[in-house]
């Protein structure tokens, strides 16, 4: 792990690939915490801030049981319509989310090499919000967990736990439950890699001016 504050890097400067089939994850919310922290995609250098709704800082109503963050240099393009498996939902205009299932708590702002294992296609308020399931490459179980089916062998109930946590977490705020595409199945690693590749392409297209980035801040905006 390396800390953003120690390296002086900001999310846009962190490479997506960590080498050897691994990817860099920026942790926004450490496991067993409740503050709703996230990368501010509309502010210069994309700092991590606590989300604010109606003038109040946001907290989950209970702790999240896994480390939560995103992959740098990815983007779920809101201009692109998904296929029938996700009900034609458009991207949620954010980086690709990561749920890291390892045993260690990862510090907010840390950068960790993770191994992709699978992915859930969550539909949140009509938007496609992929949840990449991954494990810290240095976790003691990492060498034994290589795909979505391996998770159940070593961490029983984890995949269904992730699905149900994200299905229900907004309901205390009188919001509806979230749904999932692909028949609610967690897709295997091969599909997860396709989602990473696709969202990285969307990011690169945005950086090259091929897609409308709306109000998002990007390094290119400084030079313009």
Shape: globular
Note the quaternary state here.
single chain
The whole-number mean of residue pLDDT values reads 93
**Parts with pLDDT < 50 across at least 5 consecutive residues:** 1-8
What's the count of strands?
14
Strand content: 25-35%
Specify the helix fraction band: 10-25%
Q: Going across the major beta sheet, what is the strand order?
A: 3-8-10-12-11
Q: How many helical stretches?
A: 5
Largest sheet: 5 strands, mixed, barrel
Separation of termini?
33 Å
Radius of gyration: 16 Å
Run of helices and strands: EHEEEEEEEEEEEHHEEHH
SSE class = alpha+beta
Architecture blueprint of SSEs:
Elements: E1 2-3, H1 4-7, E2 17-19, E3 22-29, E4 37-39, E5 48-50, E6 52-53, E7 56-57, E8 67-71, E9 90-91, E10 96-100, E11 110-124, E12 127-136, H2 148-154, H3 158-168, E13 179-180, E14 187-188, H4 189-207, H5 219-223
Parallel strand pairs: 9-12, 10-12
Antiparallel strand pairs: 1-11, 2-3, 3-8, 3-11, 4-5, 6-7, 8-10, 11-12, 11-13, 11-14
Short characterization:
The chain is an alpha+beta fold.
């Amino acid at each position: 792990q390396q800390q953003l504050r120690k390296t002086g890097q900001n999310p846009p400067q962190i490479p997506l690939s960590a080498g050897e089939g691994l990817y860099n994850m920026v942790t926004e919310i450490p496991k067993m915490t409740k503050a709703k922290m996230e990368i501010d995609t509309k502010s210069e250098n994309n700092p991590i801030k606590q989300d604010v709704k109606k003038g109040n800082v946001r907290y989950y109503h209970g702790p999240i049981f896994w480390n939560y963050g995103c992959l740098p240099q990815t983007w779920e393009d809101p201009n692109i319509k998904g296929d029938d498996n996700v009900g034609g939902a458009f991207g949620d205009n954010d980086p690709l989310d990561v749920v890291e299932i390892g045993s260690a708590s990862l510090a907010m702002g840390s950068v960790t090499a993770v191994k992709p294992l699978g992915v859930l296609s969550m539909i949140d308020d009509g938007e496609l919000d992929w949840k990449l399931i991954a494990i810290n490459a240095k976790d003691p179980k990492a060498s034994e967990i290589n795909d979505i089916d391996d998770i159940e062998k070593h961490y029983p109930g984890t995949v269904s736990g992730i699905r149900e946590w994200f299905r229900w977490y907004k309901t205390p705020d009188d919001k509806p439950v979230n749904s999932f595409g692909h028949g609610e199945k967690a897709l295997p690693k091969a599909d997860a890699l396709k989602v990473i590749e696709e969202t990285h392409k969307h990011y690169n297209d945005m950086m090259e001016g091929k897609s409308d980035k709306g109000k998002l801040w990007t390094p290119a905006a400084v030079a313009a």
